[in-house]
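Reply to dn_fold:

You asked what the input looked like. This is it:
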Amino acid sequence: MPLSRRHFLQRLGLNGLIVLLARYGLAPSVWADEESMYLRNDELPVIKTDYPGNILIDGRFVNEDRSYVNNSFGKIFNWMMSANPQKKEKEEDPFKLKTIKLPPLNDIDKDCIIWLGHASFLIRLDGKWLLTDPCLTHPPTQERLVELPIPIEKIEPLDYLLLSHGHYDHLDRTTVENLPARGVKALLPLRMGELIRAMNKFMDTQESGWYQQFNINESFKIYFLPAQHWYLRVPWDRNKILWGSFLIERNGMKIYFAGDTAYAEHFKEIYKLFGVIDYCLLPVGAYKPTYIMKTNHTNPEEAVAAFNELHGKVFIPMHYGTFDLADEPLGEPVRWLQKLNDEKNINGELKIPDVGEIMYI
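and this is what came back:
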C-alpha cells in the first residue's frame, strides 16, 4: 500500500529530505552576502555581446532573474505533509505513456529525435548521436512508470552527452556508469566535470557558461544557454554547479532543449540571438502546487508561452508521465496541452510522441 506523505517523510529523515528537494528541483532559501564575481570558460566563444559571464555570489551561481523567491524548508515541508487536493483524481487517472521498442541505433540511418522519457532524448545529426539528461533508471524515492525503449548498455554508438543540470531526475549515476562511454564527450555546465568523471572515468568533459559555444569539430554547433532553475545534489553543494539549456544548430536548423526551467525572460533573449527555432523540447510537468513549483518548473500554459516566444515550429513536450513528481495527475499536462492546441493557442505544430517513437527531422 502506498505511504501517505506524512509516513513517507517520517521514514525518510533529514538527509532523505535533502535528496527529495533535489529530486523535485525545489530550492530552499539561503541568505548570502553580496560578494560576487563572474565566471565563464575562457577557452570557449561568447555569443552575447558584452556578456561577462555567470554571476557567482559567495561561490554560488544565480539566475538572470533574481526576483524569484525560493521556497523555505518550512514551506516545502508543510506541502509534503499536507493532503493533495487532486488525490482522488490522480488515483483514478488511467494515463500511461506508451513505449515503442527501438532497433539498434546503427540501423537508424536518418536524422531524428527520440524521446526516452522525462528529459532524456536521443538526437541523431549527420550520423552522430547525442543523449540529453540521462536518467534512464529512476531518481531516489521514485519508480519509473514507463518502460525504456532501449537498454542503457545498448545506447551505442553515442558521441555526446548533454547535461542541463544535476538534479536526480536529470542526472542518474547508474545511467552514466552503464553507458558505453569510451569516446563520448560530455557537454556540461560550469563546474560539473569532476562529478561526471567520478561517475564514468571514460568520459571526456567540457564545461560551458551561459551564452557560450562548445568546442566540437562537427557539422553542427552546440550552445549553452540560460534556464531559470537551480542546483543541488547533496546538502552542501547548493548552486555550486551551474544549470542551463542547450541549442543545437546545423545549417540553419535549430533544436532547443530547455532542461528544467521556470518561465522567465530568457526565452525571448534566445529568440533574439537565434531567430526561429525548428524543434522546441520543453518541460510541461511537475507544476502543482503552484505556490511551490512556479519558481522551478513550467506548466503547459507557461511552456506554450515560451514556445511562442521562441517562435518555434514544432513543440515536443517532456518532463511528464515518467516519474510522479508533483500533485497533478500524470495525464493532466497532456490534456491541458491538447486543450491549448484545440483553442489555437500554440503558434506551431504540437507533437506528442510515444516513448521510443522516432521523429525524423
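Confidence is low (pLDDT under 50) at residues 1-16, 28-33.
Hope that clears it up.
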